[in-house]
Amino acid sequence: MKTNLLHIKNMVCPRCVEAVQNLLVKAGYEPMAVTLGQARLAPSSPVDPRAVAPLLREAGFDVLLDRAEQLTEQIKGVLQEYLEHLRTAPAPLTTSAFLADRFATTYSHLSKVFSRTANLTIEKYLIRMKIERVKELLSYGEMTLVQIADQLRYSSGQHLSNQFRQVTGRSVSEFRRLMQPDRLSLDSLG
Description:
It is built from nine helices and four strands. It has three domains: 5-65, Alpha-Beta Plaits; 71-119, no CATH class; 129-181, Arc Repressor Mutant, subunit A, CATH 1.10.10. Helix 3 (67-88) crosses helix 4. It has helices at 14-26, 49-58, 67-88, 95-103, 107-118, 122-140, 145-151, 157-168, 172-178, and strands spanning 5-9, 31-35, 38-41, 62-63. The protein is 58% helix and 8% strand. The mean pLDDT is 91. A hairpin with a 2-residue loop joins strand 2 and strand 3. The protein is of the alpha+beta class. It holds the Pfam family HTH_18. Keywords: DNA-binding, Transcription, Transcription regulation.
């Protein structure tokens, strides 16, 4: 089955978009638009997703054949946007409202699909994303924990500190002391 639209897992940043674009061109395809989680090929360049899967897998990506997997990857991409929304919106939407609005479906449906496919709830995935962002901001040394908590909409620095310990198994102070951040890539969060 040939298609002009590939759904691709583990694309989490602009460098991933560029890497997929380059891989497809190198393999002789004509990508028209490559975005996080998708590659749209020219009508003259359809591809069998199973044929291109090994090429993408070598670079750490994977072709999604199942609709639930595709939706899960789209949710992960929108959650990246949600983190920015938290930072910039004067009165940010809740996660459920943001996702339901973005996908024009119920949060309940999105949550069920995500949990079944990712073996992790949306909330837990978002917490992991936030903690990775906290690690990044801490490693820069430019903000206090309270400022970071405020930026990510935690109720307090203590709440962030407690969640940080739950997720990483160490305190923020221990993390700062080590200053060799054990950050994870976003595609390995779940």
